[in-house]
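Morning run. Coffee first, then this:
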Amino acid sequence: MIGQLSIPGILYVAHITFIIVLSVVILLDNNHPEVSFAWLLAIIFLPYIGALLYLMGGINWKKYKIVKQRPEITFQKELGSILKKQKVFMGELSSTIDNDIAKTMILSLQSSNSIITLNNTTEIFFTGELFFQSFLEDLDNAKQSIHIEYFIFRDDKIGNRIADILKRKALEGLPVRILFDGVGCFNKMSKKFKRDLTKAGIDTKYFLDPANVFSGRLLNYCNHRKIAVIDGEIAYTGGMNIGDEYIDGGRQFESWRDTHIKLEGESVHMLQSVFLSDWYNSGGEKIEGDTYFPSVIDKEDNLPMQIVVSGPDSDWYSLEKLFFNMIMNSNRVVYVQTPYFIPSHSMLNALETTALCGVEVNLMITGNPDKKIPFWVAGTYFDSLIEAGVNIYLYKKGFLHSKVLIVDDTVSTVGSCNMDIRSFHLNYEVNAVYYNKEINIKLIKQFKEDLLYCIKIDKSSRSKLSVVKRLRNSIFRIFSPVL
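And here it is:
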């Protein structure tokens, strides 16, 4: 039969077979229906581009564990004292904590093994200038060790100021380790910059080596976390990477609004364990022992917190479940800040349902996008959200990069996770969860200040969008799982 076919005929049969086989693979992956449907459309209409995108970002890695070491399992000995406190705390939980808060704590504990820490203090930064001022000072005062893990680390003014301190500390004999992301840091630093770090004795690794993007992890799975741990006593995490634009907006924006946090106390041990696990999973040595987990002096006031991590091969999409739970358990008001908004079906449903229940739901995204296509796709969700009663705001003063979710005056989370499918399902992310009224008040105050620089999207403004633009945006929405 095949011998009777011409070369074009053979190619056609191979083409059809390729589409059928890949479609079967997608169906057997048993992903979310809307995700599977999007991939099937991509394979049918753009088979080879769709196949490449599926290889990069469509495979359900929950079936194939990428990481070799999990922080909550590996560092049980080092986290022993915190685990003992948690056991007592959990025993008293039902009688001392509001039921909805207790459920959120238990959810993150069950889905991400996120240990509840009590002995903490925190500082919140809403500008890069204030964050880097504090960060540089703490780096300069480091005495024992420095661990840095950032999605983007630029070879620019602030990047070089940080690098100079790190090189000096390494030459003084401190162990200094930097974990870069191969995608985020691609083309962000010169070979000389990287070489000078190594010459000074700094140990560097790539979470995903840009020279070998298909070795163990695929191009679309990024380490989007932002973590710095100094002496095992101070930690930073949040939305900011290392680059001048986080201070002044860079060449593209007049300013930059972001949220980053500084932690001291038991939560630092949790971020330390995340870094050390990521380090080992990226080819670094296995680091254990009490050296990097110094004892914590008891604080006067308890600040209950959890550090929640998530990745494409996690047992659960922990941060998506956290966001969903927080929104659905809200009673009065929800505030969301995210630069990129491409929600999963469940997240969209949570926002709409909560608004329809009479809860005030406020969504703020950037009005000056750095990436056009995700911004266009975000707009395709606006109509149903507005219909449900969600207030949607576009931030117009520079670029909004803050990733914050606040619910009532009870719980809030700050971290690296955007409210989009990429962050929920594809990236390695980390968020801090606060259970504290004063923290919520501070975050809400900043949200309301940001509103001064926003325009509100309503039905009238949406109706002015041309049919051509609506069609363009809807076409790109097909590829929402990988945007």
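The domain at 318-482 is CATH 3.30.870.10 (Endonuclease; Chain A). Good start to the day.
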